[in-house]
Specification:
single chain, 435 residues, alpha/beta, Rossmann fold, Dihydrodipicolinate Reductase, domain 2, 2 domains, seven-stranded parallel sheet, four-stranded mixed sheet, 16 helices, globular
Length: 435
Amino acid sequence: MAPPRSIAPATGKLGVLLPGLGAVSSTLIAGVLTARGTGAAPIGSVSQMAHIRLGDRTEGRNPLIRDFVPLASLDDLVFGGWDPISANALEAARTAGVLEERDLAPISSDLEGVVAMDAVFDRDWVKKLDGFRVKQGRSKLDLAAALMEDIERFRSANDCDRLVMVWCGSTEAYREPTEVHESVASFEQGLKDSHVDISPSQIYTYAALQSRVPYANGAPNLSCDLPCMLELADRNGVPIGGKDFKTGQTLMKTILAPGFKSRMLGMRGWYSTNILGNRDGEVLDEPENFKSKEVSKLGVLDTILQPEEYPELYGNLDHVVRINYYPPRGDNKEGWDNIDIFGWMGYPMQIKVDFLCRDSILAAPLVLDLALFFDLAARAGEKGVQEWLSFYFKSPQPADPALPPEHDIFIQQTKLKNTLREWMGEEPVTHSEAG
C-alpha cells in the first residue's frame, strides 16, 4: 500500500468565484445556503452524499467521501461572481425561475448579498444577449487586469485562504484555436492587441491562472484546453479541467451507451433533440453558439462505443443532436432520444427516452463538487489537467492531449474514487463499489 499524499488542511474560508451569476450559479448558492440553515441533504452532490468503499468488502469500511478526504466544509464557502445582466444572486434566481419563492424567501438577504461584479462581455461571442454591467478597457489585457484586481479584492474582503473558479456563464460562439492560442507569449500579445479570437471566457481563464486560482470550465467554450492555458497552468502550478457540465441528455447517454456495449448490442442511430427556454436556450438559438454545444454533445458516443474496434456493431452510426429554444419551458428542459439498436441475427429494436429534467437542479451539485475537488487537488500539489474529474464533464480533457477522453460514466466514477483512495494511501478498487 502506497503512503498517503501530503495534503494541506482545508483551513479557513474557500472563495468560490463564478463567472456567470445566472440560473446555475444562483441555484448552487441557494442550495448551499439552505443546506447550511436547515441541514437539508445536498442531493446530487457526490462529494457530500456518496460513500467510498475501502479495502475488501469483508472489512465493512464504507465512509462518506467528505469524511474520508479533507474537503472544505459547506460552512466555509464564500460565493462571488460576475454577470453582465443580474445585479445579485437573488435577482438572478428570481429571473431564472428555477426555485420557488418559498425556497428563496428564507435566504433572500444572503442571496442579495452576493453582488455581481461587472463582467467581461462581448456580443460577438454571445449574440442573443445584451450586457449592461460590463467592464470597459482600452485592450483585452486591461480587462484581464481588471479581473485579477476583482479576484484579489474578493480574496481580501472575504478573508479567503483559498479560491477556486468555475465557469457558469453562457456558451460562446464556436471558434477553432488559432496562432494566438499557441503559447502564453502569443496569448499575452493577443491580449495587448485585443485579438479578435480571444473570447471573454479565455480572459477569465487567464486571470484565474495568473492569480493561481484553480479553474474548471462548465461550458463547451475553448478555454483551459488551449495550449497557452496548459502552459500557464503548468508554469503557475494550477489545477484545471473541463469542459461542459454533464447534466441532462448527455448524462443519459453516458449511462445507457456503456450498457448497450457491455451486452454487445449493435446500434444504427441515436437521434437527440432538446427543448429548453432559459437563458442557455436563448443563447443556443444562435447557430454559432449551438455549434459549440453540438461538438461537445456529439463526441460522447464514439469513445464509449469504439466503432474502430466494433465496426459491425457501431461502424455505421447516425448520431444527430438538435436544440430548440422554446421559452415556455424555462429551465425545465426536455431531452428526447430515439435509439435504434439491433440484436441477434440483426433484428432491430427501438428505445425512447424522454427526460423531463431541470437543468440547473442537475448542474448545481456538479459546481459544488468541482469547487471542492479542485480545491482539494490544489492542496494536494496537483497542477494541470485533472483527468480524474472527467466524471463531471461532457467533453472531459485528457491529461495527454494525444489520447481521446474517457466518456463511460462508470469508468469515470472508478477513476475518481481510485484517485481519492490513492491520495489517502488506500488500495484501488476495480470492481464492486458495494460496501
